[in-house]
Amino acid sequence: MYDVIVVGTRVAGAPLAMLLARRGYRVLAVDRATFPSDTPSTHYIHQAGLSLLNSWGLLDRVVATGCPPVRNLNFTYTDIVINGMADPSADGIDAVYCPRRTVLDKILVEAAGESGAEVIEGFSVPELVFDGDRVAGIRGRVGEGAEQEFRARLVIGADGSNSTVAKQVGAQEYDGSAAACFIYYSYYEGVDWGMQHRTGFGEQQFAAWPTNDDQYLVAVMRKRDRFREFRADPDGSVQEIIDQIDPAIGARFRDTGKRVEQFRPMLYPDNYRRRSFGPGWALVGDAGYHKDPFTGWGITDAFKYGQLLADLAHEGLSGARPMDEALAEYERERDAQSASTYELTRSISELTLTPYYDSVFRATSMSPDYSKKFFGLIAGLYPPDKFFGEQQLADLYEEVGFPEADRHVTNTEALA
């Protein structure tokens, strides 16, 4: 009998298993994958996520893989240009990192095992075990091996957007919206542009950042209705998008860029939240909450809310408070803390700015001080309620002499 079973051991499940095992609980963590292995990802870890890795004693391991630090960020949205970097975090982190998932996930899985969690790789979980209406365990097997059953006081689904745990418990979705775009990405040699996140006219975007093995991840995004047209010639379409957004970078890409792996096309799931707790179960990571990858917050949020769930599950497991009460607080806090990021991501990932965001970001680009706050917001270090505060925006517009008719201090689209 385990205290906790975690289904899924990537960026949400492995840290959760590690944190609970470090508190002395008997933890089983299973994943149908074996490690190292790849999975679709932006790779991007914000400073807030790196601070968590640092607090867990794992940041040095990531840095030691040779993944290069990024200390200057380049954002454009059509003709709005914002460049810079957030101030260092409280623990001195002054960069972001974008490690390959073959590297990052293995580090996390190994850390879970080193912390005392029992880890079974290659283990598929087709069904849960119920005791009445309460989840009591899992049933599955390694490969074609014999079926095995394990029981626990709490079963946590960290098994992604197609979560078996979510399906088995009938977790209802809420606060959802349709995904707007598709993404193609791959890995390139001969690219050295620094970190780029560039959205151009014509509802298209390209992004690039350095990762392991002296390679760059290069990704492009367009609206879903152009997917069939794009996939007819992915290499040509990637070049076209970069050319149209930044001809100078497009010329460099044509001259020196060499794709070294196959393309990863992604039609992302819709944005959603799911009911993330119930009798004997909880959800974390994309199993419970998913948003468009445009803002690159998937890994950082997986870390952040994995830590939150570990802390509150501990209160239930230790008897400090009823488990159902602790898990209810986890869902409430996750939704409250992620609300601004979720709303912002859903809005700007449409590849067109609302008048509100256009005015805010345009004015931000005109103020060095507010640009630094923008990168603090992106990094998870500057509070959204202050960045988007009505008085703060009014002061920003006054500082940069923004036209009166174009000043927006209230996001009426979000309130509608």
Overall description:
It is a single chain. The radius of gyration is 22 Å and the shape is globular. α1 packs parallel to α9 and α9 packs antiparallel against α10. By secondary structure, the chain is an alpha+beta fold. The protein has 3 domains: 192 residues, FAD/NAD(P)-binding domain (3-Layer(bba) Sandwich); 86 residues, D-Amino Acid Oxidase, Chain A, domain 2 (2-Layer Sandwich); 61 residues, no CATH class. The strands form 3 sheets. Strands 1, 2, 5, 6, 7, 8, 17 and 18 form an 8-stranded mixed sheet that branches. Strands 3, 4, 10, 11, 12, 13, 14 and 15 form an 8-stranded mixed sheet that branches. This is NAD(P)/FAD-dependent oxidoreductase. GO terms for molecular function: oxidoreductase activity.
Secondary-structure blueprint:
Blueprint: E1 2-7, H1 13-22, E2 27-31, H2 47-55, H3 59-64, E3 73-77, E4 80-84, H4 101-114, E5 118-121, E6 123-131, E7 134-142, E8 148-157, H5 164-169, E9 173-177, E10 181-189, E11 195-200, E12 204-210, E13 216-223, H6 227-231, H7 234-245, H8 247-256, E14 258-259, E15 264-266, E16 271-274, E17 277-278, E18 281-283, E19 289-290, H9 298-317, H10 323-348, H11 355-365, H12 368-379, H13 384-387, H14 390-400, H15 412-415
Parallel strand pairs: 1-2, 1-8, 2-5, 3-11, 8-18
Antiparallel strand pairs: 3-4, 6-7, 7-8, 9-16, 10-13, 10-14, 10-15, 11-12, 12-13, 16-19, 17-18
Helix pairs in contact: 1-4, 1-9, 2-9, 7-8, 9-10
Question: How many extended strands?
Answer: 19
Determine and state the CATH class of the largest domain.
Answer: Alpha Beta
CATH topology assignment of the largest domain: FAD/NAD(P)-binding domain
Average pLDDT metric: 95
In quaternary terms, these chains amount to single chain
Given the structure, what is the number of helices? Answer: 15
- What is the annotated CATH architecture of the largest domain? 3-Layer(bba) Sandwich
Derived from helix and strand composition plus strand pairing, the structural class reads: alpha+beta
Strand content: 25-35%
Indicate the percent of residues in helices. 25-40%
Radius of gyration: 22 Å
For the sheet with most strands, the description reads: 8 strands, mixed
Anisotropy-based shape: globular
CATH superfamily of the largest domain: FAD/NAD(P)-binding domain
Report the span from N to C terminus: 49 Å
Indicate how many domains the architecture comprises: 3
| Uncertain stretches of 5 or more adjacent residues | none
InterPro entries: FAD-bd, FAD/NAD-bd_sf, Geranylgeranyl_reductase
Keywords: Oxidoreductase
GO molecular function: oxidoreductase activity
Enzyme class: oxidoreductase
